[in-house]
# Entry
Amino acid sequence: MSLRSFFDPKSVAIIGASGTPGKGGYALIENMTKTDFKRKVYPINPKRREILGLKTYPKINKLPEVVDLAIIVINNEAVPQMIDECGSFGIKNVIIESGGFAEASERGKELEKDVLRKARKFDMRVMGPNSIGMIDTSSGFSTPYVPIEAVKKGRVAFVGQTGLLESVFIPLIQNIGVSKVVCMGNKCDVDECDVLEYIIDDSSTDIIAMYIEGIRDGRRFIKIIERSEKVLIVLKGGRTTYGARAVSSHTGTICGENRVYDALFEQYNIIPVKSFEELFDLVKVFISQPFPNGNCVGIITVTGAGGVTASDCCEDNGLEIASVSSRTLEKIREVYPTWAPVKNPLDVWSAIEKTGSEEVYRRATEEFLADGGVDAVIPVIGAVSWMELDIRLFLHLKKKYPQKPIILVGLLGEPDILLRWKKILEPEIPVFPTAERAIKALALLEKFGRKSILKKNKMLRNPH
Amino acid sequence: MSLRSFFDPKSVAIIGASGTPGKGGYALIENMTKTDFKRKVYPINPKRREILGLKTYPKINKLPEVVDLAIIVINNEAVPQMIDECGSFGIKNVIIESGGFAEASERGKELEKDVLRKARKFDMRVMGPNSIGMIDTSSGFSTPYVPIEAVKKGRVAFVGQTGLLESVFIPLIQNIGVSKVVCMGNKCDVDECDVLEYIIDDSSTDIIAMYIEGIRDGRRFIKIIERSEKVLIVLKGGRTTYGARAVSSHTGTICGENRVYDALFEQYNIIPVKSFEELFDLVKVFISQPFPNGNCVGIITVTGAGGVTASDCCEDNGLEIASVSSRTLEKIREVYPTWAPVKNPLDVWSAIEKTGSEEVYRRATEEFLADGGVDAVIPVIGAVSWMELDIRLFLHLKKKYPQKPIILVGLLGEPDILLRWKKILEPEIPVFPTAERAIKALALLEKFGRKSILKKNKMLRNPH
# Structure
């Protein structure tokens, strides 16, 4: 059964709608109706006649139509009864935003079981409990308290057992561009397999980034992944004893054996990450950069120490420092003082003093991109106001050499400068504050690309 | 022989002084004389009569006095001859800023050998070549192009084979506060042992943070470290084959066996880091936080997923999630809705909805700090504008519980908010954008503190 009614319902009931600004049941309606006029929104509230200009209904069975989706934000104890009322009226899709279920206590676990039992009776799909729902930039539907116009359309779907992606992290997601964000909460019914199945057929999504605490049905998960051609990046919470214990008071999920997940991810070319930072770093690189032809990197850096630490990091992550042709080096040497060494990693400091930052970075980056031995280029620039160059030069070079990844490093320094560069370059060229983060992301891009090609070749040889 | 004349010379000659704004030999004089009036600065330039209001001298031997320090910024080929001239005149301390020596070519290696041979003849100490010198906030002396008033006084010395610390990274060092910054360059003469020996007796320094590509005299290094009571954090460049190769075109240093360094650092409680980011993270934590009594952490977080990933990271880094007393949990439960679980890691979301961010974070942090089972507290707060709280509440708590480390996490979100929090809290309380960075730094603080106590006990038992 498709989840379409969750992502693009024609009509929605808000059970627990509130007329008090600041309450969840108020903000939800406010955000849902502010920019989205194409669907019907019905607030359910026995004490008021209207909320935000919408007529309210005292009970679900007084609605003029059977809505596609009901969103429940009432107290946990009252939820099972409400599932009965929704089911009796014919509603087939429900999001439970309320907390106080399996994540909270033994009583909560019972309530959650009760909810599920009742839902099954009516053939009803339930997302949550403890879920703030979804944002869909294609359909324009949004259930969290975040106004959908604050979310930039893009080609990445974020799926998680957390509302973090739809609250605190919104400004970060914003830089990337989003197709869908889904918070599954406790996954009493709708789980990662249901959501993945829906999203791998979604033409607006290229990359799926997930935070999960457990996969319920491994076999089904594998079947879905096997027919998917999208990039899947996964942050698995609860890898450790402490982490697994914390999971039980978050969503009540069973975490499972860590090494089983490791093996699963390795075999099916799913990219595992250890933190949200890494998750966003990878998404930024995968959404904007082509797969490199090989693992040979050209590094252009403002300091010798930067070249040294970047080289260490490349080797740590399985990348090679590219051998650059003598022709390339000759072309670059033109902007250098005679005494200075010209090689990869390229320390541009002495050249900057002679020729100026902009000309040196343009020349070096372009020659590295043009060199057949270089598979990807990482220009490292001090993010400081005295570094005089028009950062858009990298956009021109990206257009000229679209087949090779460029990842820019605006080396720590002044945070304002870094933010400005991000604004100008991203999402075309990802910008990181350290070479280490850029190198790690590039290494995973290379590994994933290589494994994808192997997978495709194998599929060609052994057609199903 | 002390390096005092490098850090606090009474008189300085600038060989290669320039009257052209934008040139190194101009900026150097400009910055050195702008705020520092207590020492004599003599520009050496045969073609001009004055630079920036200072009388110039055509040759070093025409100076009215033998200066404490000469700084050389002329072309590499002319440097050996200039060493002869300085030595003949009686100058004992020289910084060579010029590049084009061992880091550049075979010819440069010869030039460097020549420089050293001549310097030895005159009993002269040479820093560099390829060094931009030092900043000393106590003496007010500064040789890089950075105005010394831009550098905040503090208790951390940064020592490196790179000018990065005195250029791009200045805004970051700024937040921490600096006693000295030293760029040793190629270390043809003055090396890390000379500088360490000087700085471990420097009463204005508590922490020494180093970037090095090699240690020349291991035995001497150990002797110095053994009598030091300062914290030493080291980023060793050239750990890998590629890194070592990059070192040869940076400072021409020999990197040595990686495992020898690992063993050395482990035995002498030197803290190794793998990136500049980690170097600054540790400095921020070590300079402001006490050593914890144990490895049990209290984590307060805005989301369940945040608690899960932080728990995973704690276990990865050898920290434990603290068992919190039931009295503590009772006190915290007062700000929670009845259905919500209260434990460590503590998810405050439901409490915020009931009681408000500020009261919840204050209550939870204070109760965790007061609990005997908790050795350190990490509050994780979404760095977003809708999170309403006065961040200074943590400064009050720090004063009340000075014996326990607090490290704040302003979780990604809006960069402006994070910068504002850093400005208000640092250096008293370090602020990181991810829990992972806070946890890694805390784990190293705990390990270092534990080993330091062992070392002191051992010293008491076996007095030298």
